[in-house]
Amino acid sequence: MKIKRIMLTMLILTISALVIITCQGTVKICLKESKQIILPLCQGYYENVTPASNLQHKPAFILST
Questions:
Q1: Domain ranges of the chain
Q2: Are 26 and 42 in contact (CB under 8 A)?
Q3: Residues in contact with 23: Cβ distance below 8 Å, sequence separation at least 6, in sequence order
Q4: Rounded CA gap, 3 and 1, in Å?
């Protein structure tokens, strides 16, 4: 069971990283084009993703839940 949880956590972290990378690319694009539409979306992604990326600093918490 612990192995499945670790794999699930790694999957979530990978998806979070991809979202952050995509958002950084989107920010660069929207600086050239329309800041008002894409930038708020990216800020929302960053706020949602940050707690998930902090999980990697708390492995004991992940295993205990």
A1: 2-64
A2: yes
A3: 42, 45, 46
A4: 5
Question: Using an 8 Å Cβ cutoff, are 53 and 20 in contact?
Answer: yes
Phi, psi of 33 (to 5 degrees): -110, -100
Entry pTM: 0.36
The model's pLDDT over 9-58, given as tens digits with 9 standing for 90+, comes to 888 888 888 777 776 776 666 566 655 555 566 566 555 555 544 545 44
Helix (H, G, I), strand (E, B) or coil at 28: helix
* C-alpha distances out from residue 48 to 25, 30, 34, 42, 51, Å: 17, 20, 22, 10, 7
Output the pLDDT for position 20: 74
Residue 34's φ and ψ, nearest 5 degrees, are: -115, 100
Contact between 19 and 45 under an 8 Å Cβ cutoff? The reply is yes
